[in-house]
Amino acid sequence: MFNDKILNCRDCGRDFEFSASEQEFYAEKGFTNEPGRCPECRAAKKAQTRNQGGGGYGRQEREMFPAVCATCGIETTVPFQPSGDKPVYCRECFQPRSRNNY
Ligand SMILES: [Zn+2]
Ligand SMILES: [Zn+2]
């Protein structure tokens, strides 16, 4: 059985609760390490790494090609060579949902 534990966040230094149900969850996943960060810092860290992707194209910077968005007409860059027979979209038009999913 698990008991609630108080751990210390290595990022902000605050104490946080590692609850019995979380410990159970960790054990189920096969994690042997206790979390080193409080839930706030973990969430912040996650959000940070997600934003670094630059729109979901992956971590590595790819060569970008200039293009004009077929929807709004602004100049943009796309990670592939526009062929001319397919419309290209700027980031905003290409992923209209990502702004609402926040
Ligand atoms: Zn923290
Ligand atoms: Zn656009």
How does this model look, in words?
Helices cover 26% and strands 16% of the residues. It is α+β, with helices and mostly antiparallel strands and 102 residues long. The protein has 2 domains: 5-51, no CATH class; 55-102, no CATH class. A two-stranded antiparallel ribbon has the order 1-2. The protein has a two-stranded antiparallel ribbon with strand order 3-4. A hairpin with a 6-residue loop joins strand 3 (65-68) and strand 4. It is elongated, with a radius of gyration of 21 Å. The two termini are 37 Å apart. The mean pLDDT is 84. The structure holds zinc ion (2 copies). One zinc ion is lined by residues 9, 11-12, 14, 37-38, 40-41. It holds the Pfam family zf_Tbcl_2. This is Zinc-binding protein. Residues 62-97 form the CxxC-x17-CxxC domain.
SSE topology:
Elements: E1 5-8, E2 15-18, H1 20-29, H2 39-51, E3 65-68, E4 75-78, H3 91-94
Bound molecules: zinc ion (2 copies).
One zinc ion binds at residues 9, 11-12, 14, 37-38, 40-41.
Keywords:
alpha+beta; 2 domains; 102 residues; 4 strands; two-stranded antiparallel sheet
